[in-house]
Design goal:
Layout (H helix, E strand, L loop, with lengths): L7 H18 L1 H24 L7 H9 L1
């Protein structure tokens, strides 16, 4: 059984309807995605803030971890 021909516009509309349906029925998916994005931004800002350009040797780090 062959697939019916579909134009690019029809496919785009079908995809748009599917995404809107999922986001309407499963709001938790969008909430989770936004929450994760915010956490990622906060982590990036914290890393940027903590980056002073000063580095220590691997040996120093390992000695501090084993102390």
């Amino acid at each position: 059984m062959g697939m019916p021909e579909m134009s690019k516009t029809e496919l785009k509309e079908l995809m748009k309807e599917a995404v809107m349906s999922i986001l309407t029925e499963r709001k938790d998916i969008l909430e989770d995605a936004v929450s994760e994005a915010i956490l990622d931004m906060k982590l990036a800002l914290a890393i940027e803030e903590g980056d002073t350009g000063e580095y220590v040797s691997e040996e120093h780090v390992l000695s501090q971890l084993s102390a």
